[in-house]
Write a sequence for this structure.
């Protein structure tokens, strides 16, 4: 049993540049998470072993980040009933369209909640995982409320600056 509520799996260490956007948000919220590299194609047994044992290990939500023919989210979802969030990584010559479709187009019965390609998707994967945890955690719910308020404040401030400029 680990302390991590959220587990992040990435298909390669080369995905870390995008995945770090996800980790930044989780750090900001102070929620315990773990990160590992495991590939649906290169280390399929490690992926299956992780997914089968995740629930027993105290994990509540899994985030799977992969590029190219991205089967990571789907393979994990096939081995667990925990919610799986997919981040399509733009690491191939197809700029992530391949990963987006491979992650999103799951057959009925085995869902993977698929985020946007790249950094925005990584950030949203963290926020979506936190929203799931917030269903049973008032502290995270309140922090998510503050996150939205702060975001709104920043947009209003930027607008005020723009209004003062002449074009
Ligand atoms: C995917 O292939 C990984 O998730 C990564 O996005 C991509 C390229 O991996 P490397 O060849 O850089 O290890 O499985």
């Amino acid at each position: 049993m680990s302390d991590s509520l959220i587990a992040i799996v990435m298909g390669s260490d080369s995905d870390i540049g995008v995945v770090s956007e996800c980790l930044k948000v989780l750090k900001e919220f102070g929620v315990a998470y773990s990160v590992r590299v495991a590939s649906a194609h290169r280390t399929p047994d490690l992926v299956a072993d992780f997914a089968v044992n995740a629930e027993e290990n105290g994990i509540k939500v899994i985030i799977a980040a992969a590029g190219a023919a991205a089967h990571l989210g789907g393979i994990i979802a096939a081995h667990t009933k925990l919610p799986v969030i997919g981040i399509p990584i733009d690491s191939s010559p197809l700029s992530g369209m391949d990963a987006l479709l491979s992650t999103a187009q799951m057959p009925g019965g085995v869902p993977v909640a698929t985020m946007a390609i790249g950094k925005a998707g990584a950030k949203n994967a963290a926020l979506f995982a936190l929203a799931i945890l917030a269903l049973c955690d008032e502290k995270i719910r309140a922090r998510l409320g503050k996150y939205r308020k702060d975001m709104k404040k920043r947009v209003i401030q930027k607008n005020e600056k723009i209004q003062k400029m002449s074009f």
